[in-house]
Amino acid sequence: MTNEQNPPTHDHGAGEAHRDSAESARNEAEGFRRLAEEAREVRDQHREALETVRQERERLREAAEDARAAGEDARLAAEAARHAAMGAVHATADALHATLEQMKAIEEMRRTLRDIKDVHKLGSN
User: Fold this and answer.
1) Distance (Å, rounded) from C-alpha 85 to C-alpha 94?
2) Mind listing the pLDDT tens digit of every residue in the chain (125 residues)?
């Protein structure tokens, strides 16, 4: 057998070592690609979670603003009710005062009528 028919074994081993090295590099690159893809997925999940938190925070801010506005409306309504109640108290006091004045006038009229009756009785005797 000549060397032409059988290539030297060290050449054959170097080619296989080169193929193994290339395969190893491809496997390593594939591993890095998978890691990068997983990192992108985690980053996307974090971004979605942050967006969800931001939206919830915005909803809470809007709810707080609505509650603040409702509280202000309630305060204004309570103030208006207080003023109305005070008006009703003053109106009642005015009505009672007018009634008292009317009762005094009626009592004065009764006294006058009694006096007239007494004078009339004395005059007819």
Assistant:
1) 14
2) 444 455 454 455 667 878 889 899 999 999 999 999 999 999 999 999 999 999 999 999 999 999 999 999 999 999 999 999 999 999 999 999 999 999 999 999 999 999 888 887 776 66
Tokens read off for 17: 């070592």
Tell me the one-letter amino acid at 53. Answer: V
In DSSP notation, 54-97 reads: HHHHHHHHHHHHHHHHHHHHHHHHHHHHHHHHHHHHHHHHHHHH
Q: How far apart are CA 98 and CA 104, in angstroms?
A: 10
Of the CA atoms within 13 Å of residue 45, those in its CB half-sphere come to: 6
Give 7's DSSP letter: -
pTM (2 d.p.): 0.50
Question: Whose structure tokens read 């938190």?
Answer: 53
